[in-house]
Amino acid sequence: MNLETIVGACVAVIIAGMPAMIALLKIKELHIAVNSALTSFIAATKLEADTRFADLKEELVHVRHRNDQLFDQLSAIAQATVVAPSKELPPP
User: Fold this and answer.
1) Cα of 16 vs its chain's centroid, Å
2) What are the b/e assignments for 50-83, b being 16+ CB within 10 Å?
3) What is the distance, to the nearest Å, from the Cα of residue 79 to the centroid of all Cα atoms in its chain?
4) pTM value?
5) For residues 49, 50, 55 and 60, what is the CA-based torsion angle, rounded to 10 degrees?
6) How much is the pLDDT for 84?
């Protein structure tokens, strides 16, 4: 084999492999882009879920407080009814 054949074969291999290498590089770039987008999406979704969870916890505190108020009012009405029954209520 002479030098021209060896160099020609190397050039042919390099030229034939270039489209494959370019495709692999583009796939890698696409992979990085998709991972970046997914990471951003997951972070935003987690932040939104945490915010909603905090809002729900706050709302739960308000609902429990209102329930306590209503139970206190009901208890006061029940005690007032037992102490001084209303004549407007029909007998049981």
Assistant:
1) 46
2) eeeeeeeeeeeeeeeeeeeeeeeeeeeeeeeeee
3) 48
4) 0.49
5) 100
6) 61
